[in-house]
Amino acid sequence: MIFSVLAAEEVDEPWLVGIQIVDDETMRTAHVEFMDIDEPTDIMTFPYADEEDDLWGDSEVGGDLMISVDRAAENAIEAGWSTIDEMHFLIVHGLLHLLGWDDHTPEDRASMLAHQRELIDQWSQEA
After folding, report:
1. Pairing of strands 43-47, 62-68
2. CATH number of the domain where residue 113 is located
3. What is the pLDDT of residue 55?
4. Number of domains into which the chain is organized
5. pTM for the full predicted model
6. Burial of residue 122, with CB atoms counted within 10 A of its CB: 0-12 exposed, 13-18 middle, 19 or more buried
7. Under a CB-based contact definition with an 8 Å cutoff, are residues 88 and 124 in contact?
8. Containing domain of residue 77, as a range?
9. What mean pLDDT do residues 74-97 have?
10. CB neighbours of 62 closer than 8 A, spacing ≥ 6?
11. pLDDT, position 78
12. Is 43 exposed, middle or buried (0-12, 13-18, 19+ CB in 10 A)?
């Protein structure tokens, strides 16, 4: 799936992506530490340093995704699909954030979610 998303987004350089699956309490702790929000969330993204920020010029491209399996399970029930489908959904969402997509406004969020669904549908047909 990750390769499919990166190919669809025309990424032609090597990427590193780390995925950490955590529980709600671990996610809540990270959410407080990095965003000062005292509640769990479903996914957080941590992009690796941009070359502009890397004094040594050896930064990797990509980033880390932290996903709460507890939130994914609850989201899956609401969405009417399996937890693994929700995990796929969140991985694609996180990758798009690492690629520069933003969902701060309702319009941006709608566009991002539509694109996520397109990518997931494309990947499902390939698999």
Report:
1. antiparallel
2. 3.40.390.30
3. 45
4. 1
5. 0.87
6. middle
7. no
8. 2-6+15-126
9. 95
10. 15, 16, 17, 18, 47, 48, 98
11. 95
12. buried
